[in-house]
Specification:
The chain is mainly alpha-helical and 192 residues long. 73% of the residues lie in helices and 0% in strands. It contains 7 helices and no strands. Helix 2 packs antiparallel against helix 3 (67-92), helix 3 (67-92) runs antiparallel to helix 4 (100-119) and helix 3 (67-92) runs parallel beside helix 5 (123-147).
Length: 192
Amino acid sequence: PDRCSSMGIDVRTLLVAHALLSSALMVLMIVFWRGHRRTPGLGQWALGTVLMAMGAVGIALRGNIPDLLSIAGAATAGIVGIAAFWNGIRLFDGRPARWTAPLLGIAGIAAFLVHRTHVENDVLSRTIIISAALSVGCLLCAYELLRGPAVEVRGDERQRRLRVGHLEEGDLRGGRRLLRHHRHRAPADRLT
């Protein structure tokens, strides 16, 4: 076969490898969630991981399962997975989850994908809509991370009270240590 590059792995192999890795991550997230159910947002992150893995498996099985599942179903699962990640970030930061608007938008996208798969086979429009929906979802996740959990590092509540207590009591040594620690630390970006 004529190949454009020297890479010896075809697209189907990459999709199957991605599906296997996503499935392994799915199992790990479910196990982690079962042990830490009180962590806010973790259930939504586990749900997002499950949906993303299902989407990857659906795409990898393209040609072996109906197009409704491998195109529209897989893409919709991935987009709902991103919405679950977004809502998990909101819950982790103490804000309420917002499912109504994303699910209404996703229902419209799913209807569009079904139409563009079975009525008009239009690969280009499907690719543009899926890419746009995933991009918007990822941007919303980044926005929530930058405005919430990334702003402050969450520590043990007792440690937080101790730090605040030292500063409120006017402990100059503790304050000097804190300033010295922050001055000599390498500048970090907002996500660390």
